[in-house]
Amino acid sequence: MQSRKKILSLILLLAVAVFPLLPTPQFWIIQANYIGLYALVAIGLVLLTGIGGMTSFGQAAFVGIGAYTTSYLTTACAVSPWLTLPIGLLITGVSAYVLGRITLRMSGHYLPLATIAWGISLYFLFGKVEWLGKYDGIAGIPALQLFGFDLAQERHLYFLIWAIVLGATWLALNLLDSRAGRAIRALKGGRTMAEAMGVDTGRYKILIFVLAALLASVSGWLFAHMQRTVNPSPFSLAMGIEYLFIVVVGGIAHVWGALLGAGVLKLLADQLQVLLPALLGSGGNYESIVFGVILILLLKYARGGLWPWFCALAARVMPATKKPVLQPSASAIGRRDVPAKGSPLLQVEQISKRFGGLVAVNDVSFGVKAGEIVGLIGPNGAGKSTTFNLVTGLLHASGGSVSFNAENITGLHSRAIATRGIARTFQHVKLLPSMSVLENVALGAHLRSEQGFVRNTVNAMLHLERKEEQELLNEAARALARVGLQHLMHEQAGNLALGQQRILEIARALCCDPLLLLLDEPAAGLRHLEKQALSKVLQELRESGMSILLVEHDMEFVMQLTDHIVVMEFGAKIAEGTPEQIQQHPAVIEAYLGGIE
Amino acid sequence: MDSSIAAILLLDGLTNGIVYGLIAIALVLVFAVTRILFIPQGEFVAFGALTLAMLQQGMVPGPVWLLLLLAVCATGMQVAALLRSGQRAGIVRCIVKNLLLPVLISALVAWAAPQQFALPVQVALTLLLITALGPLMYQVVYESLADASVLVLLIVSVGIHLAMTGLGLVFFGAEGFRTPAFWDSRWSLGAVTLSAQTVVVILAALALLVTLWLFSDRTLYGKALRATAVNRLGARLMGISTTLAGKLSFGVAAFIGALSGVLIGPMSTIFYDSGFLIGLKGFVAATIGGLASFPLAACGALFVGLLESFSSFWASDYKEVIVFMSLLPVLLWRSFVAPAHDEDEE
What we know:
The complex is a heterodimer of chains A (597) and B (346).
Chain A lengths: L1 H17 L7 H26 L7 H18 L4 H23 L6 H19 L9 E2 L5 E2 L2 E2 L3 H23 L2 H7 L5 H6 L4 H27 L1 E2 L6 H14 L4 H26 L5 H16 L4 H12 L26 E12 L2 E12 L3 E5 L6 H8 L7 E6 L2 E2 L5 H6 L2 E3 L12 H6 L10 H10 L3 H18 L14 H14 L4 E5 L7 H16 L3 E5 L3 H7 L2 E6 L2 E6 L1 H6 L1 H8 L4
Parallel strand pairs in A: 7-12, 7-13, 10-11, 11-12
Antiparallel strand pairs in A: 1-4, 2-3, 5-6, 5-8, 8-9, 13-14
Helix pairs in contact in A: 2-6, 2-9, 2-10, 2-11, 3-4, 3-5, 3-9, 4-9, 6-17, 10-11, 18-19
Chain B lengths: L2 H32 L6 H16 L6 H22 L6 H22 L6 H24 L7 H23 L13 E4 L2 E4 H23 L1 H11 L1 H6 L4 H23 L10 H14 L5 H21 L4 H7 L1 H11 L9
Antiparallel strand pairs in B: 1-2
Helix pairs in contact in B: 1-7, 1-8, 1-10, 1-11, 1-12, 2-5, 2-6, 2-10, 2-11, 3-4, 3-5, 4-5, 5-10, 7-8, 8-10, 11-12, 12-13
């Protein structure tokens, strides 16, 4: 796998480097430069749309900020272009941050709407402001100079553009293959779960929105110094839509798809400009019809775009070698101090939850002591999962309080609760089906990194955190080995059987290094032997000082495993005690078997 | 600014605001029922105004061809599905059922165009033709995507916008048109002249609102639409087909679009691509209502109309910038009123 990637990257690098050295016609050099500029914007859009599940039509406007900043400063104030680049990045970054802060608090569809408004506004602003040259724009922008090379020549500028494009690709791929990358990949469809693992999803959303805007800004800076003149039209909303078209064509969820899509779009647009008027006459804007129809057809019939198809082809030529199973070594990451066995750990006091008129949980109190396995049982609809959600902060209680490790955690959101050492699994499995088992589990170790957000992100993009990353993956492999799934670590999580997916969730929760583990129906979907194995794992965990609260319907499993049982029915606690006491308890027997009339 | 200018701007803003309000209502309806952010709503407006302009000149309007094309696509897709499942018997019935109405409408419009009937007849033909596009567009483009994410549906909408703008240029040319007023008189109210067209806009909007209310409150189809808007899955379990609800909401949206186009046609020159900005202003209004509330969206539309008319007086160059940038404080306000709710967890 590694060697195949290295060979392909080397071939690509060589091809890119040799292209302008050969007697390539000037026309193709210019095309390649444009493709590079488009690709730069598209890489950001892939991060944002295909991977983060958000979208922006305003990327062209960010390109415009980069281009206009350098155009104005280099012509009117004679500032060096190498100084205007960071200034443009700063302006872009701040505006993207503000835009993101405003819209990303809300549901996903407000961001595209806001970026549409943003794109239109900026286009009109460029076209109306006197000192930006109104619709005529700014001319006479100087060419770039680098180490004595005059980059006015397209052939020279080519190297700068493509060095930046490949650099950006490298950074983006590095970022995705890291702790931060796992968090980013969880944004699309796994936010509740990620928050419960302690991932600050809001922050990562803003991060990729700002990164995408910065890439666009760099593209604009290059564009201005390539064209040597700017006007508002390349930064209009129509262009913003075209960038989105590029990523849909290339492969919306793949960084390389951005490069592929940019190439396809540029070549397609050129062909269409010649072909369509010849075919249909010059009366209409047939290009936009063709683009529109292609966009619809792709999303209807080939949502993955061209890149997956390209990969399948490459895989046939050069089959991937299997990744070796990671043999975990001793953990190098610090662990929490385990509280003394038998000391009170979780205390739930008279907690209730009302949904409108429905009382789902009513005045329920119970406790979990350190090193104890507590079972929460009851018929369907008794309010067990709601209780779980109240303890882990997924829902906020209507009344009552929860304290953990002598700290009141009532009303904290799920991320804050995860930070304090409570990890959970979900009744309806929540994992990221396209990521590997190992990566899914490593998401649980998100909080076990000591670096700050910005430093961690920068290190991840430069792959300076490989040692820490190895430790996190090692931790994940250890958790997998503990639950007996290590042989499947490189499998896609979505390919696992449901029972295995539940076990995966336990491994992920273990990776959080929790003091208290909340398991929602861990044995559902397991076969008899698998249940026994799970029971053994949980007993071992208890030996090592872990406390566990579990909801389960398999009575045999619960009775032989737990130290203490809480029984709920219709939202209220009806009994509590040791397994023996519960088996004899008249209210429990009535709840499960019905009373004797 | 004296009070008479203020009154003129006020009236102007309200008239435009009413039209934006109609569009915003259509957008909220479509979003509630189908989760589609229908970017091309504005194209229906432009198509409506320009179709009427074509009919005025006695020419066959281009959307006739679009209607036929969509009908053929819809039929082709259904026939293909029938063939795949081996139900050859239903093919003829399917072809007739899918093609009959669109062909009749197209033939009617094509026949009526050169006759140059009176304006009300032409308006009726325009509304009929454009409304017929809505359900067919849903059937051809969105039906198989009913379970896709909001994001995918949005990008598809953008695709439709691109295609329809391109087609608009082919159908109507690059020239702009202004259709004649329905009712050409003016009244002086002090310093302000109230044009009859303004009255027509207000009356038409009121009539539409009453009709929509009656439709959603009194008819079974209306109730089905409302049920789907409240809870898609629940409605489906009660036997309301997602496809039916989608087609219905697109029909209503296309009708509202065409009506808006016919209403603003006499007040401003409409080009093939004018619809986009008009539709987006409808989106600004709909966003004020959180894309969920009809009354708030209508109020938002009046706000957008007024903001636009007053900013065209004070800073006419920055009119669009002000209108669209006003979305940002609106979003900020909404993020405090109604913060993130769980969405789209696929």
